[in-house]
Write a structure and sequence with these properties.
Elements (H helix, E strand, L loop, with lengths): L1 H10 L10 H13 L3 H15 L9 H7 L3 H14 L8 H7 L5 H13 L3 E4 L4 E4 L1 H9 L5
Antiparallel strand pairs: 1-2
């Protein structure tokens, strides 16, 4: 995680970085130590880099706990939801996700969506018969992005 965090910060060509806030550092380092999955470790690295970037102030400590509850499939579903956010049809269903990721099973996507709804990252948009990213989900996706 440290190497990935350094890589992200180096790519931004920052002259100085801020110290990682203590209320974020402790839970972030504890979660990263227990995490064997590369795709989740990259999210922790991006959280750390964004918290250390003096141009950013959008990393909240509760994002660490949310990411800790994500599975790799949740990362993929959140990425799909983020990509749909600024389209004419930001809402989506299980079938929409499976169309772009045929390696995923319908029920697995449904379980993921239910988890993400419980974590307040997605909500059901009943009028459009689909799911959308919540403001919390949108902000957490910015916070785990390795882009400035």
């Amino acid at each position: 995680m440290a190497r990935e965090t350094k890589r992200i910060l180096d790519e931004r060509n920052l002259k100085e970085t801020a110290a990682l806030p203590e209320d974020l550092a402790t839970p972030l380092l504890e979660a990263a130590q227990r995490e064997p999955r590369e795709e989740i470790l990259k999210l922790y690295a991006a959280l750390a880099a964004n918290a250390m970037d003096p141009n950013r102030d959008d990393v909240r400590p509760e994002y660490v706990e949310t990411v800790r509850k994500w599975q790799p499939i949740d990362v993929r579903v959140m990425g799909y939801a983020r990509d749909r956010r600024n389209t004419n049809t930001p809402y989506f269903g299980v079938g929409d996700v499976v169309k772009v990721a045929p390696d995923l099973r319908n029920y697995a996507v449904e379980v993921s969506i239910n988890n993400l709804m419980e974590l307040k990252c997605l909500r059901l948009q009943a009028q459009q018969h689909g799911y959308v990213l919540t403001p919390y989900g949108s902000e957490i996706m910015l916070a785990v992005s390795d882009q400035p």
